[in-house]
């Protein structure tokens, strides 16, 4: 069956990531940006950092002026006379990395997209057919166990990798460092990065136990200009959380200019354009730029679990999800959760004109969102949580054939800028446009797309907003994890007490903004999804706060 896709859009003005040495076939960087060797034992780059190494041609000032004039962006050089020689050189380098020929198109499309209302898709959408859906709630236990076995088998054979999308800025969270470094206030004080690293350790151990084969799940981390350096330092300071450094592969996505509502490039400073990552859909260009797919092939990785950094409940390389997708012969899959209500502002995984797609809430009418089936369930209930399965072959096809066809999305943001008098301004209302690509927009290219439904309270609690917000805050993320661990302990036969000494029910959960009923935290190094706890906790009474780490587990085993 053939498919027709829209012609590729013209290239965006994407700057090229910083150059590095060409010391090895996979572009592992062994020197920092000052040229100092980093190959020693204390090297920041003792793990693998992949970066695109462009052939950069430095343009002359006159060439840049002409290009900016043609693009209608001559204001970019407004402060040139005020810059010192060093700042001029740096600015000229930045401008030389831009696709100045495509700058005019980029700015015009951004302004047009921001002014255009979203298209209505009501007449063209339909749910994903049931035969392409698996569910932890609706699929039978035998199937779930078979998928888990298949997933662990693939992991044990070193065929599974995980890829973390960590290039975004934590502006809504109110911090100036990567979200993965955030401590939500757990009793253990663990950050998101540490929790995720420990889940990788545990899933490797489970695969070994089930199939008797030591294995590795490589951790690919897509960063940006904003997040790479602090992430590198954080991992080094924490000894890579016990993961073999060579199995942590960091790489950068590209950056693109932000523009005003009338299509003018925004200056962050007198000699610097306000840039932004090109969205989590920048993954596919970054995979090609940084030769990440070549690294995967060399390691034998055939399947990839892709997820966002901010979900505290994410199950790294979830064997049930991996096994389901592999068993179905899928090249692309998405985890979803049931929407809490028709008006919940999340994208819905469905089909548009017969092709898999995520449809935003703004793209359908309320009456469509409110449609219900014979059993009263929402027809369009499959909420997207940015948790995906891809085969390496599919990613290769996207990078080589389809990346240029990905849709550009508009994000209206508050972008700090320098005004006409050279003053730094932090706007209090949105003033700029960031153009983004979304990771899920490749679903349309899949030949066998599947959906796997999971339980929200077990697998999805994102960290997006600062405390004080009604949802998706450090408090709600922390409470979600603690409530999950209380349920695990109760299911294992323990009696969990709240702060008043009262028993907690087996089905303990939290509502938005609720204080935690108990401080019960179980290390991922002890249990990945609640397994193995009966021998440790059955018949015990757990007073809050209770932390079950490896040391405590050994103490309980010895009793």
Automatic annotation (TrEMBL):
Keyword Nucleotidyltransferase: yes
Domain of life: Eukaryota
A GO molecular-function descriptor: UDP-N-acetylglucosamine diphosphorylase activity
Pfam families, per database record: UDPGP
Keywords associated with the record: Nucleotidyltransferase, Transferase
InterPro entries, A to Z: Nucleotide-diphossugar_trans (IPR029044), UDP-sugar_pyrophosphorylase (IPR039741), UDPGP_fam (IPR002618)
Biological process according to GO: UDP-N-acetylglucosamine biosynthetic process
Coiled coil: none
Keyword Iron found: no
PANTHER family in the record: UDP- GLUCOSE PYROPHOSPHORYLASE, UDP-N-ACETYLHEXOSAMINE PYROPHOSPHORYLASE-LIKE PROTEIN 1
Family per record: Belongs to the UDPGP type 1 family.
Name the record gives this protein: UDP-N-acetylglucosamine pyrophosphorylase 1 like 1
Origin species: Anabas testudineus (Climbing perch)
Gene for this chain: UAP1L1
């Amino acid at each position: 069956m053939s498919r027709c896709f829209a012609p590729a859009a013209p290239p965006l003005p994407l700057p090229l990531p910083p150059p590095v040495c060409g010391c090895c076939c996979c572009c592992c960087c062994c020197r920092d940006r000052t040229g100092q060797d980093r190959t020693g034992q204390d090297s920041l780059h003792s793990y693998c950092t992949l970066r695109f190494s462009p052939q950069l041609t430095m343009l002359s000032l006159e060439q840049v002026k002409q290009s900016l004039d043609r693009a209608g962006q001559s204001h970019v050089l407004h402060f040139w006379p005020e810059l010192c020689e060093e700042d001029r050189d740096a600015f000229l380098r930045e401008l030389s990395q831009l696709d100045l020929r495509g700058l005019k198109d980029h700015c015009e499309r951004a302004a047009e997209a921001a002014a255009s209302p979203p298209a209505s898709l009501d007449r063209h959408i339909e749910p994903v057919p049931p035969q392409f859906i698996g569910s932890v709630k609706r699929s039978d236990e035998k199937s779930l166990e078979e998928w888990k076995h298949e997933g662990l088998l693939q992991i044990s054979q070193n065929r599974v990798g995980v890829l973390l999308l960590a290039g975004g800025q934590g502006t809504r969270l109110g911090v100036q460092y990567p979200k993965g470094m955030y401590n939500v206030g757990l009793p253990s004080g663990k950050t998101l990065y540490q929790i995720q690293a420990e889940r990788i350790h545990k899933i490797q151990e489970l695969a070994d136990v089930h199939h008797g084969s030591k294995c590795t799940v490589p951790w690919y981390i897509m960063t940006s200009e904003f997040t790479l350096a602090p992430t590198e330092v954080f991992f080094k300071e924490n000894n890579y959380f016990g993961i073999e450094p060579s199995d942590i592969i960091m790489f950068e996505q590209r950056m693109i200019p932000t523009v005003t509502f009338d299509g003018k490039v925004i200056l962050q400073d007198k000699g610097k354009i306000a840039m932004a990552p090109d969205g989590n859909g920048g993954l596919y260009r970054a995979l090609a730029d940084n030769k990440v797919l070549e690294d995967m092939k060399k390691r034998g990785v055939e399947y990839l679990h892709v997820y966002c950094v901010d979900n505290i409940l994410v199950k790294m390389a979830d064997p049930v999800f991996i096994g389901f997708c592999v068993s179905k012969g899928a090249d692309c899959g998405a985890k979803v959760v049931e929407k809490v209500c028709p008006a919940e502002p999340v994208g819905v995984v469905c089909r548009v004109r017969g092709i898999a797609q995520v449809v935003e809430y703004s793209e359908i009418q309320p009456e469509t969102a409110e449609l219900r089936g014979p059993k009263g369930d929402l027809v369009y209930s499959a909420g997207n949580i940015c948790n995906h399965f891809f085969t390496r072959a599919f990613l290769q096809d996207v990078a080589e054939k389809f990346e240029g066809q990905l849709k550009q999305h508009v994000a209206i943001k508050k972008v700090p800028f320098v005004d006409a008098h050279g003053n730094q301004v932090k706007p209090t209302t949105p003033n700029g446009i960031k153009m983004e690509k979304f990771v899920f927009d490749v679903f349309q290219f899949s030949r066998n797309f599947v959906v796997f439904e999971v339980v929200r309270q077990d697998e999805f609690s994102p960290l997006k907003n600062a405390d004080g917000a009604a949802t998706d805050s450090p408090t709600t993320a922390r409470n979600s994890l603690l409530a999950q661990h209380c349920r695990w302990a109760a299911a294992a036969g323990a009696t969990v007490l709240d702060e008043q000494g009262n028993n907690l029910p087996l089905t303990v959960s939290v509502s938005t903004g609720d204080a935690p009923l108990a401080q019960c935290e179980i290390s991922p190094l002890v249990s990945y999804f609640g397994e193995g706890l009966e021998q440790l906790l059955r018949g015990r009474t757990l007073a809050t706060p209770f932390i079950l780490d490896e040391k405590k587990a050994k103490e309980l085993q010895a009793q």
